[in-house]
Specification:
Layout (H helix, E strand, L loop, with lengths): L2 E5 L1 H4 L2 H12 L3 E6 H14 L5 H14 L4 E2 L16 H9 L4 E3 L8 H4 L5 E3 L1 H11 L1 H13 L8 H8 L4 H11 L2
Parallel strand pairs: 1-2, 1-4, 2-3, 4-5
Helix pairs in contact: 2-8, 3-4, 7-8, 7-10, 9-10
Length: 185
């Protein structure tokens, strides 16, 4: 069984990071998990912070995610939320990770997931940069293929690998350097 990663709303919010994670998940290097609450939170934050974007397009993107990863949705975790000991705003995330049998929670907000709250469940929390670097170390060939396929699918506008890595760089600088070292040198 592949490694299982639950993606927090804050890593689904930035389009370049979301696309990178989902492009890698398509290769089955890892299995992705989320809950409806996580998806609603991410989409709602995008709508609130980007009034210039059509809400229907945002909803369509998240609907596409649901359909493309039909086994990613975690349900039945709500009863665990009150007994979680991590930050109250992210207890639903840890509860979903437990029910979804996640090995790791990928989040930009590590402070909400202290070791004392995660260790009893054998779950780790990783920043997306660390997570992507770890996946690269596990299967560099599949990861390079995923990033190349993602870049090749960007048509409006098309981007060079360097342009793509510049966009992703603010969220995953170390990962981008790994890609540069392998694919651009």
């Amino acid at each position: 069984m592949a490694f299982v990663a639950l993606l927090d709303a804050n890593v689904l919010y930035p389009v370049w990071l979301r696309d990178a994670l989902l492009s890698v998940a398509e290769t089955e290097v890892f299995q992705v998990r989320w809950s409806e609450q996580i998806l609603r939170e991410a989409a709602g934050n995008i709508k609130a912070n980007r009034p210039d974007l059509d809400p229907a397009i945002i909803d369509g993107s998240f609907d596409d995610m649901r359909q493309s990863f039909d086994d990613a949705m975690v349900t039945g975790y709500q009863a665990l939320i009150p007994v979680m000991s991590n930050h109250s705003k992210d207890r639903h995330v840890l509860a979903a990770a437990i029910v979804g049998r996640a090995d790791v929670i990928v989040t930009e907000n590590l402070a909400h997931f202290p070791d004392r709250a995660l260790n009893p469940y054998g779950i780790d929390a990783q920043h997306p940069d660390e997570f992507l670097c770890n996946q690269w170390d596990l299967d560099e060939e599949a990861m390079a293929e995923a990033i190349e396929r993602w870049r090749g699918g960007l048509l409006h506008p098309p981007l060079t690998m360097e342009q793509l890595l510049e966009k992703l760089g603010s969220h995953a600088p170390n990962f981008c350097q790994l890609v540069r070292n392998t694919l651009l040198e």
